Structure formats: structure tokens, C-alpha cells
Amino acid sequence: PPDTSFKKVPKGMLHPKRIMKGVVAGVRDYGNRMGIPTANGAVLFDERFIGNPLVYCGTVGIMPKSASFKKVNKGDLVVLVGGKTGRDGIHGATFSSGELTHKSESISSGAVQIGNPIQEKKITDILLQARDKGLYNAITDCGGGGLSSAVGEIGRDLGVIVNLEKVPLKYEGLSYTEIWISEAQERMILAVPKGKLPELLKIFESEDVEATVIGEFTNDKRLHLRYEGNTVCNMDMEFLHEGLPKILRKAIWTKPKHKEPNFSCPKDLTGVLLKILSGFNVCSKEWIIRQYDHEVQGQSVLKPLVGIDNDGPSDATIIRPVFSSKKGVIVSCGINFRYSDIDPYWMAASSIDEAIRQIIAVGGSIDKIALLDNFSWGDTDKSEKLGELVRASYGCYDIAKAYRVPFISGKDSLNNEYKVGNRTISIPGTLLVSAISVMEDVSRAISMDAKKEGNLIYIIGETLNELGGSEYFTQNGFIGNTCPKVNPKRAREVFKKLNRAISLELVRSCHDLSEGGLGVALSEMAFGGGLGMTVFLKEVPYKKLLTTCYSLLATRDDYILFSESNSRFIVEVEKEKQKDFEKAMKGVSFGLIGCLSASPEFKIYGVKGNLIVSTDISTLKETWQKTLKW
Questions:
Q1: Residue 531 maps to which CATH number?
Q2: Residue 360, SS3 per DSSP
Q3: Residue 66: which pLDDT band, with cuts at 50, 70 and 90?
Q4: What is the structure's pLDDT at 553?
Q5: Edge-to-edge strand list for the sheet holding 430-439
Q6: Cα 508 to chain center, whole Å?
Q7: Do residues 287 and 233 both lie within one domain?
Q8: Each residue of 278-292: pLDDT tens digit?
């Protein structure tokens, strides 16, 4: 966390606050200059990320269907376009997947790529022109492994010959090996028909972007590399891609046993709620969001911050990429790394559920969702770590299949560990699930902020005793042994019925329940809309397992308020539409738990009718905002 004491920062590490500011600046400077809206995201903290902070960046684009197919032909030229090649980024992918130490900054500094967003923007614009004119047959980027992976991938089926001395360099002195594996940024490989080369070179020259022929695709199914007339590699493509035998490794997963919480339910939960709202993983990220341009291109329909003052946390982002169409693209994400400490399977399931329900919350349909996974893990050479990863993968497979939602892409970053003397700091197993959906009519989108006094507040879904890995347990010094699970059959029914209710305009606002559970979701909805709220926990559908220390029979208000059970929503409904809404939701668990008021008071009554939270929306909002108000 950013408030970590300098004394606790191990040798060779930068302070977390400096790391965070640097990451934000990097995303801001590159993204803003590219003219691409940075519209959705999340920021989470844990002490175990101190040696290996994780940064996920992803993009979404649209393209003609006809351009989605790649086919390289014999005789096509290998054209390298974009930036020059340098030593920056050599072994970047290898470095990012290896264990770090206090010497890494000086030894591996060359593995860090140096980006140039203006160059990237120019390349992108020109490539669109070249695409629309049909000037290339296939394209791929130079990512991990640089030319070695890009050329090796695009020439896999045919074979290719490359003259490495023709690659434009930033400076002299690079060996052919360095040229081949450099991961310098802003470079693409094109397969260009010979007859179309002059026109391609002409449009690249018009924007002062380099385009260089470095080779030709053959039909001998071999990778042939030459440097100044000498052959430096001549390898069979099948051997290159399939020659390495599959590695058989032992994976072990044993369910951990953590100490069970042994504290009683606080009588006044106001202070508890405020503490959770101010926590780094729940608090407002407006300081970050405002540095990113989410309005560029003028396509945003639902923004990352919404509400009466445009500072409430949106569940998802909606953009309208084609102005002549009402269709929109919804983007969301789900991440719950703390659940990995209990069971990586249900961590993965929860991440999928969160990403999906955030799309449902803004008006999306589960029938039009696709997912992307991004795994970050510790040293998978260790059987226990590999076992965790395998279990998380099974969770992805089972839940996505049950939801009938496909994974269309993904990535992984393994061996995220930092060695300090005899101690190794390993990140918690982390999975980011991103979701994307198409919305037929963006005018049907809804936001999470409360809209009108007198409207009713419902909770959709069932609350269970699932506080393991929750914000509440974490702030009390516990992990717990029961993290949230997912019932795909029941959840899918909830998603479909809620989507139908939103489509019928029976819902004014909707907010999903995630970190901090019901207490946080209610607070955000209230101060997001500038309206007070009165809520009664006795109306919440919950399992009777919510008992004090799992032994006494008294139901715990704090567990109901802060449970992070999946597949749940808070919904605002007008009184006139109450019957229609309840009819639409028939067959799934829901409860009428309260109403909105013009008064700023925020009150929650416990199961026994006693007042357990009493504050006002200004206090809630100020508490939520002040933590990262830098």
C-alpha cells in the first residue's frame, strides 16, 4: 500500500507510492497521446506486491470482418514498419517472468522497453489506410521475443528468409542475435505482396514512418536467417514450433487452513463501514481516473465516474464507436486476488462472476459477453504454486462453460517473486478477467447512482456466510476459510431476469456488490446520487449460516452487511413499477430492503430492528474520497 513505512521497504525496491505514481504517469502519458480513451480499470493493493507490482493494460478495437483473416502467400515480402531496433527490451519477456532481486535494477535495466506514443499513433493511422487499400495480407506485432516471435509466428506455415542487416537500428553495434530478439517498441511485421510494395512504402513515407523489406516468405517450411551474407540460422519450422517435448510437472494443491475469526459483532457498525470505505482497495480512485482522457474520440456513453457530481464509481464503461449506430461496447473487469489464499478455483470463479455482473448492472446481456484472462502467479516450478494455477484454470474452464461465455484471449506472467536475503516474497495468485459485450441500444444503459427520492431499494441474489478474503475480515486481521462461491445455474437466471427488467425500463439504477459487500454498495449508490437511504437488513435474503463465530444462533448484522457473496445487485425501482418489477424477478431471490429520501441521512437497521449504521452521505463520500486525494 502507498502508506507503507520506508523501514519496511526491502533493499533494492522503490517505495510503493513512487511505483504507483510512476505507473499512473506511464499509462497517462502513453494513453492520452495515443488518442485512445482510458475508460475502465481497477487498482488494488497488498503487501505481497511490494517486489512485483502488477500492471495490466488492454485495448479494444473494431474492424471490418473481411480484415480479420490472415493468409501469407509464397513470395510475400517481410516488411518491418515502425520504430528502429535497439538494445532496450532485450530479454524483456524473460526478465518479466523471472525472479527479481536487489540487483535487478542494474543488471536487467536493458530489459525495459522505451515507448514512443507519437510514433505508435502515426503507425496506427497509416496501418488503417494500408488495411483499407488491401496492401498487406497479414500483420502481427513485435511483442515478447521481438522479431523472433513475430516472424516465426507469421511464417510458421510456409517458411521465411530474413536478412537481419536490413533491420533499421537506433545505433550501431548490435549483434545479429540482439537484432533478432530485441523487444523495442512500436514495431510491426507485415506480409506484403510484391506488386503492392511501392504503394505501401509511399503512404508510410508520407507520414515519415519507416517501412523496410527485411525478407521474403518461402515455401520450404524453414526459418532462414542471414546476416551480411552469412547464414546464422536455418531451422525447420515444425521443429521450431513443435520440437520441444511437452514438459511434465507435478502440481499439488492442498486446501489451506486459516485461523477462524474470533471477534464478536460490533454494536455500532458505522465506524466499521467508514473504515472499509476508506481502505485502499475500496476508496475512490478519482485521483487516477482524472489524469486519464476517457472522453477522447467523443464515444463515451457511460463513463468511469458517474452520478450527480460525476464522482461515483461506475460498474462498467460503455462506448459508442460508430456514431451512425445505437450499438455500444461495454467493458468491465473482475479481480479478487485475496480469495486465492483460500481457494484459487473460487477466486477464478468470483473474478468471472464480477466481470459479468458488472456488464449486467449497466444493462448488458449475458448472451453477448466474451472474456479475457490474465494470470499472474509466483514460481510455478514449485509444485504448490503450480497446483494453485492449475486449480484456478479449472475454475475458469468450469464457470465459463456453465455461463456459456467464451474466453477469446488471454495472457500470463509467471514467477513473480522477489528474493530478499533468505526470504522470498511471492505475489498472491492473481487473475484479472476482462469482459466485453455488445449493447444493441445504448439509450437503455443505466448507471449505479440513486436517482429519485421515494424510490424503492431491492437486493437481488442471496447472501451467504462467505467472508473469507473479504475486506471486513482483512481489516480485522483474518483471512477465513470460506470465500465466495458461484452457483452458475442460479446466477445465470438472476442475470437474465435482471437484464429483462432493465430492458423493460423497470429499473432506475443498479449497482453490483463486490469489495465491502452490501454496506459499501449501498453507500456508493446513495452518495453517488446525492440521496439519503434507509435500509432494513431483516429483509435481506440470507442463509441462516450467518451466526456468531459459527456456534451461536444469533444472526450477525456485520456478516450480512459485509459478506461478499457473488451474483448480487442493489436495484432502485419506482413505486409505481414495484409490482411489475417483482413479477419480472419471480423465481430468483430478492428482497425489498429500503427506500431513498431527500434527507442526507444514511441509516441501516439490523435484523432485530436496532439501528446499526447512522451517518450522512457527505460523511460517507468524504471518507471514501480522502484516502487517495493526493
A1: 3.30.1330.10
A2: helix
A3: confident
A4: 36
A5: 300-302, 317-319, 328-335, 430-439, 369-376, 407-413
A6: 27
A7: no
A8: 999 999 999 999 999
For β-strands 611-616 and 601-605, DSSP reports them as antiparallel
Residue-wise pLDDT for 546-579, tens only, equals 554 443 334 799 999 999 999 999 999 999 999 9
- Return the residue matching grid coordinates 460503455: 318
Tally of domains in the chain: 2
Question: In this structure, are residues 217 and 181 in contact, taking their beta carbons and an 8 Å threshold?
Answer: no
320-328 contacts, C-beta under 8 A, 24 or more apart: 320/442, 321/62, 322/62, 326/440, 326/441, 326/442, 326/443, 327/438, 327/439, 327/440, 327/441, 327/442, 328/301, 328/438, 328/439, 328/441, 328/442, 328/445
In angstroms, the Cα distances linking 280 to 516, 524, 585 are 12, 15, 35
**Full residue range of the structural domain in which residue 407 is found:** 254-626
The CA–CA distances, whole Å, from 70 to 149, 162, 194, 213, 624 equal 16, 20, 17, 19, 49
Phi-psi region of 208 (alpha: psi -120 to 50; beta: other; left: phi over 0): left
Element at 624 (helix H, strand E): helix 617-626
Average pLDDT on 205-217 reads: 96
Q: Angle 449-452-458 (CA atoms, 0-180°, nearest 5)?
A: 65
Three cell numbers, residue 163: 536478412
Distance (Å, whole) CA 177 – CA 180: 5
Q: Which stretches does DSSP call E strand in 179-311?
A: 187-192, 211-217, 222-227, 230-236, 300-302, 305-306
CATH of the domain at 228: 3.90.650.10
Q: Could you tell me the pLDDT band of residue 422, with boundaries at 50, 70 and 90?
A: confident
Three-class secondary structure of residue 232 per DSSP:
strand
pLDDT of residue 123: 94
Quick one: average pLDDT of 1-18?
91
What average pLDDT score do residues 33-45 get? Answer: 93
DSSP 12: T
Written as nine digits, the cell of 59 is 485495448
Q: Could you read off the pLDDT of 68-80 as tens digits, one per residue?
A: 888 999 999 999 9
User: Does residue 47 lie in a domain region?
Assistant: no
Rank 18-32, 256-270, 564-578 by mean pLDDT and report only the highest: 564-578
